[in-house]
């Protein structure tokens, strides 16, 4: 399909950050304009996916669906939302990890099976999707998208002779990996979280209405009250009789993604009762305790390094300054400068402030490094602006391993820490000092038990079996 | 998905004509820009479907697909076609008969099954699609579109363990109804026509390349040579080894849709060697023989009545005049006039020429009447412009029955001839005379054997079993 | 400004016809939705200009204006027209003769001068625009468009101390050339026609409302009654007190453009009481009288040659056939075929019907030839389809001279008849015979006095002084 | 003209900040892709105007111009910039103060006068535009836009018999008010600053190329070196012979807008050598000295209050916390929530973090207050999140008077400080404390002499005569 201004290909790739793949928002609210509420909920979760957005609404008989490539306010307007009447809605924002950046892959996925209509939204990544896909194809299944989520849909339909709850329980036995799911039937809203609780999902309430959302910030935005997180292995079913819980397989060891605390989640969200920005500030304090540096100022790499930089400054007593100005108008598109102006692309986004940096020994705090290329450019910019020393302090450990559970950290061979020693990295980015927060320091800063977390990207200790032959499933169809 | 200017809902409904549902164009051409050739082929077949257009291309490994709502030049431009490189292409233009007017229903349909990729384009209508759909759902199939064509796709996949040719042969045993199909695999172009030959499909050649198309006008446009029609029940397979034919079930009685000659096909196309416009002119002559009228001038309802009106004038000796001016710029959209200007909508499209009509006894020739509402308005316009008598002569018999084989003639209760006697119709449209061409006269004018044809809309004699419980399959999903 | 799908550059240039430059429609109607009526009026005049469309409405105090590149239904929709409330409106469709194809040049032009607001729409071409522009620039005027019309606006403002009628009378003394104008002030609708009456303008009435329009077909479309043509040199002022006329300079010799009858106007329009299509049919009859040819069939070049071909067939007794099928879906854009498919572009638009042409001696009738390139291609197509002889008969004389009064006939050196003898042209287009209607025959066919007409493109006899140094005024600003 | 998604009307009006009206960027660079450089320069100046953007390029003979409503990356893409070749370019971003939000008012304005082509971009506001407009209309001038800038254009043309420099000098004598101008002729780039230096304009150099820009951050972004500010009353002319200066009237008292330091300019820009973010931090420190408050945390209203909040925290020793989370994805459009969700609109943009605020006495720092409505909502949100005390500290004095020099502070009757006492304001916003920085404190924090500044919005002391009868000039034409 033709996309208005398909910014997808133009996404700025400065960020050098792992990419969150999806955000979920669902509501069961008989007296509410559920499509509008979902719109606001998705707006609050926009940081979890900027490639596509979609909403499906049930009025008890029919589904109305709209989804497209783009940000929430680009995909939806009053005219589109107005006819989407109903009492249940689920919505999805997506950054693709499996499947290409195509509108056909946008979610929620909608289909009719033996028992009626189903709409499904998925956050996470299956580790055995290819296996199941092959198994289904042998039985004559066809695939129109390249997403893991279509695999889940097909399984639900295969088990479709009984109730939807039974079909989901059977499906959860087949699929491996990380998944938080929202499922909508004509008259039910269902939330599912995998046995390890890798991806977040929480429950809120607004009057009589129930809400399921990836992060608490979405509850705040729509004015709902936080009730509790969905438990690992739990199926939450909401219908006319209220909310009931089915506890399926729950792994003894949980594996909540620690990177949600480090970078992915919005600062104002809470997980397991811990506020994200306060955890990040504590990571900064811990960093200062682990690596005290003699310096004149502490500056963040905006915006993701701000909380940790404030923590570092607080614990170290070194003044916090805003040494890098971020252009708030840089959107997803701009024209690539030619060779003559190669620094312009970076300066368009970040401009060092000479009046702050000149003659200073600088501690620059960032939350994480993936490939290291952006750091290198920033360090150079700081020196050009007069910084006499630049020490890079990172508020998480080196990323050594890829994530198979739904975060795009790039291939292993692109991870700078997987290839180079600490000192080599320091030399590569040309910093005077480079320090990463320790694994223990990071986990301690969360204020939660250590074995709650998946930290496999730092440790290689994968809680859930990973596939031998990794790679995006090649559908070899490019539908645009 | 968001449509640029979704004209669909705005289609002018003056026409009061049966709607053709689809046009097909496929090419196997190793040294050609197959996407471009298909674009021109679809352009020539635009009259067969104006709702959506799509092209899929195979380069031997991958498919590139683009489809969207709109006319061919609205859906495609250079930038979109340029990257669609390959050596096989199939294309489709669509006016929906089953399935709603949604981009998800646009064709070709593309999918991956056990043996690889398949793209399918369909012209026609299955009479047992709901039955098969239910049978498949019991086995766990899910449906994402509301088209008959998805049913065909699922069956091919169910029979997917053997060769594609075998899968098609098995599928043809299951499905009932009218279908001309184009199927593309990674390395083959396949054409299929149902056992009755209801919908057309012909073979052309351009250098080494083979072409399959709904009408010969598409061959002319791309500069290809006409080879022959695909036979009823024939599967034509084109690949690196050339063209080979598999003759499956061929019904003794054929049932080529006579309405292709009456109205649907382009005047410059030929079927079974007979040119469409010459057949229409002969229908007009036959009409004059059957119903001589005393009149001063013969005028057509432009454009579809022109050939028959010329025939009528020729055979009757009454001068042919252009008494109605058609606005060539009326597109698919215009703003509905309010009550004060209710005649404006019609006059925007057709304006009677007073200088030609004043004081004249007029024979007006049209090819067919469905609901009769437009005729009524035109007759009134002619009188207002000074015509003293208006005789409506129709170059086909009254439409008494709906079509189940892919032509949208509206529900039976909307067919004016199904509800009213000839004289009632004449009174309704307020004409001085009304005459329809006889069934025999129509069939004779084709110059082909009578039992070649399906004329069920005139006679109720359905060659292929029709479903008991008719109606568009309600998917109850509205995806936009 | 950014144009949606700027078809402008993609206009098919097959037509090889002079281009009409503009259509005007204005209404003074206190109880009507004047913007809507103007929309329908412009729709009926779309053939006079397809590049841009615009409407301005006065509510007595303010003007609401909308204009853009594109066809009327592309430029306007309900949402845009809805807020355009008022009791006077003027509208304009444009094909550029002076000024580039830019939205800044779209009309009506709107401005505020000493006495208030003025909106102006212009059909025609000034011959002394550059002279006046230079004169005004010496006094400090600036120009933001490249149109003649801005020159008229500036002159009205210079004479703006008195009444608008006085300002127009003074302006008409300064400007030379062809012009029909609509002028709207806060409370008046004014129509102006130049002293020679080169471009048409007529008056209609619909209840209490008055209408001014380029052609009578626009009156028919909106359901208005034709009153009379505006006289050469007449100013027609319509306001709350009704319609009054100011007769300024009227040239003894009129110079109505005969090409309006030959090609430009819509067949259902009348000028000086003569219907256009009947005049064209008579031209065809006259052509048969002047040049009888031995042939089997008469075919038109659709659509412009149809009326004359019918006349030729009628007078000669040779059967009229539709030998060329015109694709009704060819819009303003399509993708240019590459070299391998060079005939495709023509065939996309016109397809010869072999069944009609094979073995026939063909008389092909067209209304006019400008460069001759398209004729040449069509003649070749007819031969390829089996025609044994092709005689081209043209229902107007050879075009020897360019038009300076608002019709784009191309530069003189592109006019085939200006460069080649009749026999050379015949050889160039490779026809067996070539005949043009005589000047006298053409003028006689109009049924009007010979000295009513400007036929300068045929004769070189320019009624109004033409500029020495011709050429589009180069503004050297390209505003997009 | 039709705007894609006319965000204009949808601009979020939370901000409650004065609106900067324009940003200017010009370059004279024979060997550079001047259109691209200007694009990046405008991108860096986007904060100065988000309604429209435009670029004009001269190649020595012709101008290429593109402008439209929207942000820089929305208005321009590679395809549009590619053909804009030349060696001089000027660009403009605009937030309208005079003139409506219409594309016709977008700049640069381009025109042809006696001596050739001129393109003009204007930052500021004339105080005698209506007077001059009337004077010009008496002489027959017409106006097509509602901007002050068109008045300047007309004056230049009136004085157009001599050189462009002379015309500019004469024009500067006529016009009163605030203006920084860029003027481009076929071969010159000219910068002009009014006699009081109200609006900024600086000079940069990049290799041989000269740049003129509103702020130094644009120089940084394109990689240019800062040379100096343009002086009040100075005309800077850049052509093939280099840069030369003409010093016209320079007022003894300068009047640089102090609000550039307070809020308008980008933090990384410098004026008169003073860095904006450091000045803002010092304002925060000064605020802490003037108004020490007993509190637990200092939080900013993001983003404009951050620098001052850091300064306040630093000087007071109270910890700086990020208590309000700003949604980075809130663009210019979102759907208005209905009554049931009235808090959602604010929470969509700003979410209080309970974990930080609960039980705390909060000092909240903002840079300025216009109407006070947003403050009131934020204070309420903080309390709902558990803050026990909320003190609002504002790093500039109360705004008592409107600005006539190009900043949109709203009408006087909307300025909360113009209508209410300090204590009334505090009650209105329901804060426990409210303190504004003193005028002296603010000016001292700039580090520059007091009489350099215009602070009329705080003091009512207008350096330049203001008009008696204020109000946007009503053109009474609404062109869209």
UniProtKB/TrEMBL annotation, chains A, B, C, D:
Signal peptide: none annotated. Mg(2+) binds at residues 304, 366-367. Its cofactor is Mg(2+); [4Fe-4S] cluster. Keywords: 4Fe-4S, Glutamine amidotransferase, Glycosyltransferase, Iron, Iron-sulfur, Magnesium, Metal-binding, Purine biosynthesis, Transferase. The active site is at 22 (nucleophile). [4Fe-4S] cluster binds at residues 257, 403, 454, 457. Binds 1 Mg(2+) ion per subunit. It catalyses: 5-phospho-beta-D-ribosylamine + L-glutamate + diphosphate = 5-phospho-alpha-D-ribose 1-diphosphate + L-glutamine + H2O. GO terms for biological process: 'de novo' IMP biosynthetic process; purine nucleobase biosynthetic process. Pathway: Purine metabolism; IMP biosynthesis via de novo pathway; N(1)-(5-phospho-D-ribosyl)glycinamide from 5-phospho-alpha-D-ribose 1-diphosphate: step 1/2. Its EC number is 2.4.2.14. Residues 22-241 form the Glutamine amidotransferase type-2 domain. One of its GO terms (molecular function) is amidophosphoribosyltransferase activity. InterPro entries: GATase_2_dom, Ntn_hydrolases_N, PRTase-like, PRTase_dom, PurF, PurF_N. It comes from the Bacteria. Catalyzes the formation of phosphoribosylamine from phosphoribosylpyrophosphate (PRPP) and glutamine. In the C-terminal section; belongs to the purine/pyrimidine phosphoribosyltransferase family. This is Amidophosphoribosyltransferase. It comes from Formimonas warabiya.
């Amino acid at each position: 399909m033709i996309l208005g201004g398909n910014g997808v290909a133009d996404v700025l790739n400065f960020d050098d950050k792992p990419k969150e793949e999806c955000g979920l928002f669902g509501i069961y609210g008989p007296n509410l304009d559920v499509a509008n509420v979902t719109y606001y909920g998705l707006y609050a979760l926009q940081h979890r996916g900027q490639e596509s957005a979609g909403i499906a609404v049930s009025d008890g008989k029919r589904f109305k669906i709209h989804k497209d490539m783009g940000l929430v306010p680009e995909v939806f307007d009053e005219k589109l939302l107005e006819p989407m009447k109903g009492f249940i809605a689920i919505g999805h924002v997506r950054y693709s990890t499996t499947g290409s950046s195509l509108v056909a892959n946008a979610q929620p996925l909608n289909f009719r099976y033996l028992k009626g209509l189903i709409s499904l939204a998925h956050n996470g990544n299956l580790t055995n999707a290819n296996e199941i896909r092959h198994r289904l194809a042998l039985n004559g299944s066809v695939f129109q998208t390249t997403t893991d989520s279509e695999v889940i849909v097909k399984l639900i339909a295969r088990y479709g002779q009984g109730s939807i709850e039974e079909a989901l329980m059977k499906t959860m036995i087949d699929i491996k990996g990380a998944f938080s799911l929202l499922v909508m039937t004509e008259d039910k809203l269902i939330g599912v979280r995998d046995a390890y609780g890798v991806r977040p999902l929480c429950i809120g309430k607004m009057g009589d209405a129930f809400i399921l959302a990836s992060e608490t910030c979405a509850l705040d935005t729509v004015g709902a009250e936080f009730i509790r997180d969905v438990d690992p292995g739990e199926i939450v079913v909401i219908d006319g009789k209220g909310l009931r819980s089915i506890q399926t397989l729950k792994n003894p060891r949980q594996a909540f993604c620690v990177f949600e605390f480090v970078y992915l989640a919005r600062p104002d969200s809470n997980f397991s009762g811990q506020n994200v920005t306060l955890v990040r500030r504590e990571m900064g304090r811990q960093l200062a305790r682990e690596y005290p540096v003699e310096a004149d100022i502490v500056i963040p790499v905006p915006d993701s390094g701000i909380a940790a930089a404030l923590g570092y400054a607080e614990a170290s007593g070194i003044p916090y300054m805003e040494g890098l100005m971020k252009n708030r108008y840089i959107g997803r598109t701009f024209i690539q400068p030619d060779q003559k102006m190669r620094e312009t692309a970076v300066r368009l986004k970040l401009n060092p402030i000479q009046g702050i940096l000149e003659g200073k020994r600088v501690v620059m705090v960032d939350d994480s490094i993936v490939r290291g290329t952006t750091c290198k450019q920033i360090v150079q910019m700081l020196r050009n602006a007069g910084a006499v020393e630049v020490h890079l302090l990172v508020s998480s450990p080196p990323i050594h391993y890829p994530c198979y559970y739904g975060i795009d950290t790039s291939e292993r061979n692109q991870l700078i820490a997987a290839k180079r020693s600490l000192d080599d990295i320091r030399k590569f980015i040309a910093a005077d000092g480079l320090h990463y927060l320790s694994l223990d320091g990071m986990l301690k800063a969360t204020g939660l038990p250590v074995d709650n977390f998946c930290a496999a990207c730092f440790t290689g200790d994968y809680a859930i079996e990973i596939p031998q032959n990794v790679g995006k499933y090649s559908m070899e169809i490019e539908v645009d």
